[in-house]
Amino acid sequence: MYLRAHPLLFALLAATRRRAVSRVGGVLLVHGAEPYRQALTRVPLDRAAVGTTGGAVRELSAGGLLFDQEGAGHRTTRRVVADGLGADGVERLRPVWREVLGRRLAPLAEGRDVDLVPLARELAGATVRALLGATGDPEAIARAAAEAAAAAVRDHLPGPRPPGPARAAAAATARLEALLARPDGRPESALGAVLAVAAVNTTVAALPRAAAWCADAGLWGEAADERLRPVLVGELLRVTAPSPLLPRVAAADADLGGCPVRKGDRLILVARHAARAHLQPPDARRPAPPAVAQLVFGAGSHACPGARLARAQLDDALAALAPYRPTVVRARVDRGAALPGWRSLTVRATADRRTPEHR
Questions:
Q1: What angle do helix axes 190-217 and 71-85 make, rounded to 10 degrees?
Q2: Which side of the chain, N or C, has fewer Cβ within a 10 Å radius?
């Protein structure tokens, strides 16, 4: 799927993954777990640089906020986010996505097919709407968030670039902001738009792929087991790595795994390789150490604040799917998405297995 979505980029990463750190001109490809962690916690980073997560988010708002802040400003923003994405906040949101799962998966009981991508879009959009107290249609919110993210990152990927990415990003962001308006008509803050983009794109990338992996590898028994399912959730998030790459720029000279880092070097931090997704399949009975599995959510003070939400949503999705033991019957790669994923992934209730090509 990675090669179909971004063939040049992921072919290069596959060719260099045997080395913990590799230099290609002014770019360092960071695959090893420890250099990856050091890059996020010890190397000074320019969080607003073009081509980084913060830089891309700045194209969607007046500031990247959570992604490009440092010091007291970042700590304040994290506290604000924690109110909605902490344990209590996630439990308040849970009925929202459970309703979507129950309604969207009901056709499986009648022998009909279900496309998990629209399900993931509505689930993500409904969650964002509830989190932010917005008024827009959930699927429209999800589509606008996906378009905004794709437009913002398009200029940073290798290969042909369509004209006008900045205009496309601005238009998509304007649509998203309108959909996120509150009941009293007040616009949502820039932070709300950033959270919507992050939540929607990671959910739509991860949930269908995790379900496909369960179908391919025959993991529905573990998904149905209330004791094993939380461990399986962590393992599936580790190997699917919804944000497989973290682009960063060094703000000062440093060292990573014995490889010199110069100020201005671009760092491509390969989350899925750092988490050993390419070497260790998901195993709920013999999972990777938590310190390794957590790397797909970053490390240090800028680690993803939505990890708890992602785990809860996937846990409930697997619990809802497991009784049907679905198999994948059709799949199409989304070549235009910000994160590698499926444009459609259609499943059917059956115990049959599929080959691992849909992961």
A1: 60
A2: N
pLDDT (0 to 100) of residue 13: 86
Helix ranges restricted to H, the chain: 2-5, 7-16, 33-41, 53-58, 71-85, 87-105, 116-132, 138-154, 165-179, 190-217, 220-224, 229-240, 271-274, 290-293, 307-321
pTM of the model: 0.88
Report the alpha-carbon distance of residue 96 to residue 126 in Å, rounded: 7
Q: How far is the C-alpha of 215 from the C-alpha of 192, rounded, in Å?
A: 35
Average pLDDT for residues 302-310, to the nearest whole number?
A: 90
d(CA 57, CA 323): 39
Q: In degrees rounded to 5, what are phi and psi of residue 223?
A: -65, -30
Place of tokens 């006008």: 164
> How many CB atoms sit inside 10 A of residue 221's CB?
13
What gap in Å lies between CA 191 and CA 64, rounded to an integer? 8
